[in-house]
Write a structure and sequence with these properties.
The complex is a heterodimer of chains A (467) and B (519). By secondary structure, chain A is of the alpha/beta class. Chain A contains 14 helices and 15 strands. The chains are: A alpha/beta (467), B alpha/beta (519). At the A-B interface, helix 1, helix 2, helix 3, helix 4 and helix 5 of A face helix 1, helix 2, helix 3, helix 4 and helix 5 of B. The complex binds pyridoxal-5'-phosphate. The site of pyridoxal-5'-phosphate (PLP) has 14 residues of chain B, from helix 6.
């Protein structure tokens, strides 16, 4: 037992003699004695086979950085990838605040000792509520897809119905998560996921098909604005009206980066709103920046259906002072185990703090400028790409920051085009040719505030060169 | 008793950000679109039906004001910068070396849909870490998609669904069996996945009996989900027989290995017979919890179950790392993308920095330190160890009860937790629901904290016990040294008062002001 190791920098009690001193105090002769509950034949037989220890910071850093440098990133390259993770500008202050050890800590926290964090959480919900024009915002769940899944399950609990309608042109990544949450048909409590066709001329939801599929067995209609393939859903209010007429909930997915220029979903009849938190000041982190919010009107039947953490502002015992705590805490799985609403646990709450800082920095004018800049440059990109021989932009002039580019006319596959672009330091749009959308060899391009007009011309010029 | 250091939390009287700023104030500019852009596409690009008319009611503050405000909020957050022996959560040092590595553009500015050729570094780390977890558990494949421990439990439930569906038996295998002391996420995720939950009651010795398990499992059982040791620090010595009994009826066996710290390097889930297990990287493996994520529940299973895993799975083939999406029997995704990748890198860094010997020593220290703590807590009048019949040394944490002190003084575990914050000590973890001992608390020493830290923590507990006797009202009205006083909790359950946003707060306050005015 007496280790020959040097005291480990992360373990105070690995210093010589400490373990022995504690053993002496508890009257145990050996470490083995404190493991007396574990039967001898439970201890593992296979020896541990781990790579050599890197106990020095200098070696550890070298190992991590050497490996990570084998990656190519979107700063050294020019990337047009989006589809659920988008390259946006992250203000330096956001990085500073989310890096504060009080926030990026190992502790889960408590309401008594972590007042500042609780306030930051409330400020996330409050500012997002102002963008959405909705009164209730839950702390984010694991991802946007998970947020949609929970929202659908909320709607099923609220309506007692077991069918949801989703756009046929949904993101397969999110749709896979949605199907997981809605369960296989064999399961008790399964929710049937039915797709609604897209209008092939605009990419928007086909209202005729929606009407045909709506009925008194539908718990919710889900659509996104902007949609997965970038199109702005101008029929949003009409969809919400039709859903309401049949007693179904309207669940909308929105990109918060669009809300300085797009109508707030609370204003066109959305009942439950979901969306990604990553655009609000979180790096892409190879997909590890994901997080999803859920919001709704402040009606008790909605509030009682949430699965996670709802932070409420309240008065304290000191007159005039405000504090924060969890509302309706008993209805989640911590309070009611299998009888709670779905489940909750460690989630993505650090990104709520990132979002709070980000939204406070932008303010109303920042969001307006951001939205204007994105839509302008994205349309510019669509226009320039559409002028490249053989390249066609599907649904031009209908999109926000993403748009579909078709390469059928070039005789090349998206994979071939992207290989050629990559060799020139450009990451082309996401290949959606295998996605059962009837769009042929198409890619989903994403343009944000980080792409300059010159970047966009470089893309168009390079495409001309390689096609 | 040693002299307790004096503590006073920062108090900034910080307004809610929604009240700050001035009309027209700016914290961040974006450039106008370039002239050639505007010339090419024009303005008014949003269809009229969708163009936002109102101005979102956001604060209008400067960059410095945002920085200062959120720095003040961080300063009003203890964040375990005192001593936190928060049980069931395994407090660790979170390496800044690892944190800074993940903030480099080579990871922070990487997109998961990049071509695998451009992702070889991060894939190598994930692959190597998979190998480390395989060695620690005996499992054949790990994935990192789950966004926390609970999400890994959910992954298990989904994998079990796919497994039984593949056999055409989903209609028959409808039940999940667990202990009533299992973490709530096990029954909750199984239920959310559509299984009926069977909770086994606890016996005197702290865990459900083998007979009860045998009676509960049947050809209806899809899976069992169990953690061991449990949150009371009790190890179920019959776990091998449990697994055997469950397998005899064909059920899958999932080991919730969240309480791994005391047995790291000592137990192998596979050798105990389990089909799958999960590790919490934000707990045992030194990645931050960050007050509730981003987190990772690493889910590992045997080759028999690997076909049902959510995709993508990181694989190595001919010296190259790839993302395997081609799993026709996959249960489907539980979350988009491959997981919280920076946390995986941090966990890899932790495992490398500890090494096999360090990991072994870490579990030795956690269990010895917990028993040291137990011994000292046992000397404080008013505290009682749960399950007094279990005389053996507990594992890495112990469930305690403040019941005797509460009976004597009226000061309960919630009051106590409030008061702890006044000493710069993070309030203790009490217990998951249901509370099976009166006024519970659950400390866990782990390998981070020094003996001096543990002594300080215990001295604070002893001191508050004294205060509970000499001045119970002072304890019950705590905190007194924190930025705010106790909140008026009745609002949390009252639709007329709760306010999850500033909008709601203003509306409800205006409503109650109007009501007062009218009265
Ligand atoms: C035994 C056990 N299982 C599961 C979990 C759930 O983990 P998470 O909060 O990451 O979802 C925990 C949380 O600490 C736990 O202690």
């Amino acid at each position: 037992m007496a280790s020959q190791m040097r005291a480990h920098p992360w373990m105070a009690n690995s210093a010589p003699g400490v373990l022995e001193a504690m053993l002496a105090e508890i009257g145990a002769k050996s470490v083995a004695e404190v493991f007396e509950q574990v039967p001898q034949d439970h201890f593992r037989k296979a020896p541990l086979d781990l790579p050599p220890a890197l106990t020095s910071e200098v070696e550890l850093r070298r190992d991590l950085v050497t490996k990570l440098k084998k990656n190519q990133d979107c700063e050294a390259n020019l990337s047009f990838l989006g589809a659920g993770v988008w390259q946006h500008h992250v203000p330096a202050i956001v990085d500073e605040i989310v890096g504060r050890t009080e926030f990026a800590t190992n502790v889960w926290g408590s309401y008594q000792s972590d007042h500042g964090r609780n306030q930051a959480w409330f400020e996330f919900s409050s500012q997002l509520g102002a963008l959405l024009n909705l009164d209730v915002v839950q702390l984010p769940v694991y991802s946007w897809g998970c947020a949609i899944g929970h929202a659908m399950r909320m709607s099923a609990r609220m309506t007692g119905r077991a069918k949801v309608l989703v756009p046929a042109l949904s993101d397969p990544e999110r749709l896979s998560v949605i199907r997981t949450y809605c369960q296989p048909r064999e399961m008790e409590g399964a929710i049937e996921v039915v797709t609604v066709a897209a209008d092939p001329t605009s990419g928007r939801l086909d209202i005729g098909d929606l009407k045909a599929k709506l009925g008194d067995d539908v718990a919710a209609v889900y659509f996104e604005n902007p949609a997965y393939l970038g199109t702005i859903e101008t029929g949003a209010a009409e969809i919400a009206r039709l859903a309401r007429a049949d007693g179904a909930e309207t669940i909308v997915g929105v990109d918060p980066a669009s809300l300085g220029v797009l109508t707030a979903p609370g204003d066109y009849g959305a009942d439950i709103v979901t969306g990604p938190v990553q655009p609000l000041g979180v790096h892409m982190h190879c997909g590890g920046g994901a997080g999803g919010f859920i919001a709704s009107r402040d009606e008790e039947r909605y509030v009682r259906a949430y699965n996670g953490f709802l932070v409420s502002v309240v008065e304290t015992q000191e007159p005039g002072q405000l504090g924060f705590g969890l509302a309706c805490a008993h209805q989640n799985s911590y309070g009611m185990r299998e009888n709670g609403n779905d489940w909750t646990g460690n989630s993505t709450y650090l990104w709520a703090i990132a979002g709070a800082v980000y939204m406070s920095l932008l303010g109303p004018e920042g969001f307006r400028e951001l939205g204007t800049l994105i839509v302008s440059r994205a349309r510019y990109a669509a226009k320039l790409l559409g002028e490249v021989p053989g390249v066609r932009v599907v649904w031009p002039d209908t999109t926000f920051k993403e748009f579909v580019v078709n390469f059928d006319g070039t005789g090349k596959t998206v994979a071939e085009v992207n290989d050629a672009l990559r060799a020139k330091g450009i990451f082309g749009g996401k290949d959606i040719s295998g996605e059962d959308n009837g769009l042929g060899q198409s890619a989903l391009y994403c343009v944000t505030e980080i792409h300059t007009a010159a970047d966009i011309r470089r893309l168009a010029d390079t495409l001309r060169e390689v096609l | 008793m040693t002299r307790l250091p004096e503590f006073r939390a920062a108090k900034w009287d910080e307004p809610v950000v929604m009240e700050m700023g001035r009309p027209g104030g700016r914290g961040q500019h974006f450039p106008a679109p370039e002239p050639e852009v505007t010339e090419a596409v024009g303005a008014a690009l949003i269809p009229a039906a969708m163009a936002r008319q109102d101005r979102p009611e956001l604060p209008e503050i400067t960059e410095f004001e945002a920085q200062r405000h959120y720095l003040h909020l961080s300063q009003m957050t203890l964040g375990m910068m005192g001593v936190s022996l928060f049980g069931t959560c395994t407090m660790k040092y979170n390496s800044k070396t690892a944190e800074f590595a993940t903030l480099r553009p080579e990871l922070a500015e990487v997109h998961p849909y990049q071509h695998p050729d451009t992702l070889q570094g991060v894939l190598e780390i994930m692959h190597d870490f998979d190998g480390i977890l395989r060695s620690l558990s005996g499992m054949d494949q790990f994935i990192f998609q789950a966004g926390g421990g609970a999400d890994a439990a959910y992954t298990m439930a989904c994998v079990a669904r796919a497994y039984w569906q593949d056999r055409g038996m989903l209609g028959q295998r409808t039940e999940m069996v667990t202990s009533m002391q299992a973490h709530p996420c096990n029954p909750a995720t199984a239920a959310a996945a559509g299984f009926k939950v069977v909770n086994l009651p606890l016996e005197e010795n702290g865990y459900p009996s083998l007979e009860a398990l045998k009676a509960a499992v049947s050809e209806k059982t899809a899976l069992i989900m169990i953690n061991n040791p449990d949150d009371m620090g009790i190890y179920n010595p019959e776990i091998k027989e449990w697994v055997k009994a469950a397998k005899e009826v064909g059920a899958l066996c999932f080991y919730d290995h969240a309480n791994f710290n005391g047995v790291m390097g000592k137990l192998s889930a596979r050798e105990l017979g389990f089909d799958a297990c999960m590790f919490m990287l934000h707990k045992t493996f030194g990645a931050p919890k960050a007050g509730g994520g981003p987190a990772v529940g690493a889910f590992g299973c045997t080759d028999d179950l690997a076909a049902y895993l959510p995709t993508p799975v990181v694989v190595k083939s001919g010296g190259r790392y790839l993302l395997d999406e081609d799993r026709p029997k996959s249960a489907g995704k539980v979350r988009e993308f491959w997981g919280n990748v920076p946390q995986v890198v941090k966990a890899y860094a932790w495992a490398r920095a500890m090494g096999a010997e360090g990991i072994q020593l870490g579990s030795d220290i956690s269990v010895v330190a917990n028993n040291y703590m137990d011994k000292r807590l046992g000397e404080i009048p008013g505290l009682a160890r749960s399950n007094p019949q279990v005389g053996q040394h507990r594992m890495e944490m112990t469930r305690w009860s403040l019941g005797p002190l509460a009976e004597e003084t009226g000061v309960g575990t919630v009051d106590f937790a409030n008061r702890m914050a006044d000493y710069g000590i993070d309030p203790w973890w009490m217990s998951h629901e249901p509370w099976i001992v009166a006024e519970p608390f659950t400390p866990e020493a782990g390998e981070l904290w020094s003996k001096e830290d543990i002594d300080l923590w215990i001295d604070v507990v002893a001191k508050i016990c004294e205060e509970a006797r000499s001045d119970p009202d002072m304890v019950k009205s705590a905190p007194h040294n924190q930025p705010i006083a106790q909140v008026k909790g009745d609002a949390f359950e009252d639709p007329a008062k709760w306010a999850m946003t500033w909008r709601a707060w203003k509306r409800k306050r205006a409503g109650s002001d109007a009501a007062r005015g009218a009265a």
